[in-house]
Amino acid sequence: MKYSGKIGVLLLLMLLGITKVHAATNPYVQTGPYGTNCTWYAWNMAYEKAGLALPGFGNAKEWYNDAKNAGYSVGTTPRANSIIVWGGWTSYGHVGYVERVDGNTLFVWDSTGPCIDRNDPEFIECIANGVSEETDKICYANAKRVACEYTISPDRYGITGYIYLDDAPKTPSYSNPTTSIPDKETTQPIVEPKSNNANLANIELSSGEVLFDPELLEYDVEVGNEVDAITISAIVEDGTATVDGMGDYSLNVGLNEIKLIVTAEDGSTKEYLLRITRDEPQEQVLPEEVEPEVEEVKKADSQDRYLWMTIMGIEIVVLLFSSIILFFLFKKRKQKNIEKEK
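^ that's the sequence the OP posted. Answer follows.
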């Protein structure tokens, strides 16, 4: 009985060891020169939302081909639960996790977001009850986060394709030899302080140009009158920060002021002001506007000729009448002379 008890305990420990839950380790570094690395963020989202531990694929722009070579299903058709690979975003590329697709719109979790859920009733109520910019900042800091919206067409960042996580191989091979799968029970959570970085790394416009300077918070931009709408996007230094104010705007003629509000992970905010001036329409001389003037000139010339001819006619009549009178006077005088001679 003593041995059977020990054997039972040993079997129980072995069973617990076999069924122990494991957690994969992200093979990428979390923070880089521009804030949170997109590769680290996309790997985490794939693990959290799809339960899939991806291999280390290298730089973002290499993910598509590396995943294909590792046996993953890839393609250029957007799908939910996939990794989007932008080859033209930067020299290193960019990746994000596609949560869903709605027509021409992708809903993506990536290191430049996430975005604020403006339709959340609590956020709407918070803004409605706000009494100052400070209370609005609190609303933005506590707002519910959602995936950001990107358009498939036009493609502004050079989409290479998508890695379909639903069709992932059963046993992917890890290209990063340092990747380990430690026991979840022995992994100690690391509590990091929340970032207060609310800086932008760049501002991009669909028309016009922003000469971005990390030290400047206000920018003046001029666009032509033909530009009646503009799309504004921004890149944050720290991937944990969010930006409110990006999107499409209609432009009035003259000055248009647009604010970008960056909210850091710890809730601190920073505002960037864009003063976009749309030029006045240029005056054009149309043929219809010239013709009336020509007609007026012709009419004036005609009136001048008529007046001149009238004056000439009167002068001729007066001259003729005077000649007739002189003729009769001359004739009468000659008649008198004849009578005197008789």
